[in-house]
Amino acid sequence: KATMKSLRFITAEAFVSNAEFVRKSLGGVAHNLFPLLFKASYLLEQGEVIHDLVENWPLVDFNMGKLLGTTVDYQEDLSCRTCSVCLESCLTGLRDYVLNHPSPYVKRLKVVDLTGIKDVEVQFCECKKTMGRWARTQLLSKLCLELLVYLQQTQCNPGAFEISVDVLIDLFVTERNYELVMQALLKKCCCPLKICCVSFRSDNLDLQKFFYIIKLTDPSLLRKLEIVHNVRLEMEHLEILFNSIHFPLLMSLTLPARTFNVQRFTATDERMLTNIGEKMGEMTQLTELSMPFSILTGRIQKLLSPLKTPLKMLDVSNCSLNHADMAYLANSFHANHLEALDLSGHKILDLYPSIFFKLLSHSSSVLRSLTLEDCNIQDTHVNMLILGLSPCQKLQEFKFLGNPLSSQALKHLFTFLCELPMLKNVEFPVPRDCYPIGITYPIDDASLCRFDHHKYESVAEDLNLILLQANREDVKASTPLFGSYDAAVQETNNELGAYLIKSFKETLERFTTSLNKMS
Known about the structure:
Blueprint: H1 7-16, H2 19-25, H3 34-43, H4 47-55, E1 61-63, H5 64-68, H6 84-99, E2 111-113, H7 133-153, E3 165-173, H8 178-186, E4 193-202, H9 207-216, E5 224-227, H10 235-244, E6 252-254, H11 267-282, E7 288-290, H12 300-304, E8 313-315, H13 323-331, E9 340-342, H14 348-351, H15 353-363, E10 369-371, H16 382-389, E11 397-399, H17 407-417, E12 425-427, H18 445-448, H19 453-469, E13 476-478, H20 487-518
Parallel strand pairs: 1-2, 2-3, 3-4, 4-5, 5-6, 6-7, 7-8, 8-9, 9-10, 10-11, 11-12, 12-13
Helix pairs in contact: 1-3, 3-4, 4-6, 6-7, 7-8, 10-11, 13-15, 17-19
Keywords: Leucine-rich repeat, Repeat
Protein name: Leucine-rich repeat-containing protein 14B
InterPro entries: LRR_dom_sf, LRRC14/PRAME
């Protein structure tokens, strides 16, 4: 739906639609109009104008989230438009801000905040070309290094070296951009644009390189650390990381699959786990913890009880939790604060329904997102599930892919979901009766797409009709077969695929070598 624009905004759009005119007139534009002109030129994808506005930015700070967010003159939030034209113009404008001399304005800029940019699945920009987090990391690092080379080679204005602008960014480092980012961070002290890493994600990276670069980011400022795919971080490495580096401001921690495996624990490992728990307890800001696909049976209390701050987000999907783990979670002080919870891969309604409902009732006043994928939720469980979800009136998102539910059970569940006032997003499974008889759960990837698509479409229509009849068009219901959208994986999937093939090849080679030795 169209968003209302103020007369000021309409005038700003008209002004920025002629790049040549803007360039000539910028010297006479009042400082307080720059934010308005920036948002108008971003909406119209006027790259040259964006560049010139940033190059001559007269204010102390430049905050992308605030500039593109909801404003008085134009309510629409543009911060999820990661338009390549606009973002590249923005960053090159920043480089030229340092080089531009003489400028019509005194250089007052101190902080540039790029962390408000949100990467989403559907883009509304005209050019349809996006610049994701990885590409932004790459471009900013490249521009910082080019700037240094340029300043050292040319007899430029000595005032350029006196400029110091903190650039707050969410870095995303993989093997492919590691060298560039590492060089930019190493030379940060000499560069007028100072990369300040607020959040760090690392995929497809050798462990030694990860340890080296994380120290360069200035961990004392880090709010969010995500070590996700193909970083072979195991428990002993995590202990070294926490023992050697302090993360006083860390609010969110994501660990890669199989960081912990209690099945092969020794007494030393138990001590290590205790130490890791204590180190996490020292992170007084930590409220989000994600450690999927680790085997943590019977150890959740040891890991979480030292935390001084209650968790708001917990992902323990596929962590082989037992009754004791669930009982600890339900009775812990975290339960009353959990806004997002992922318990996928646990047969909660089969094994410990009453404890699960206790956990839900404790978190019901704040719970916004609940994920129960591959939990073996069957038709016989639906009434029980409805009972458990009833108090969760703040729930905005419910994901339950991969459960063996029939079309009939889904319709029953959807009729209830219409009653949750805040609900916005539902991810539901392909109904069991759309698959061939005798299919076993969890369904393997090869069989995942082998269902009656025509029947599925018909059921999906019925489910949407239930929402429609309850006046709940605001709820988006979908079946993303291979899981929810992940912008970072989407952006680097070629590198991810190549890395997986390489790992598989190395494993095969090791296996062949050991076979040869045996024979």
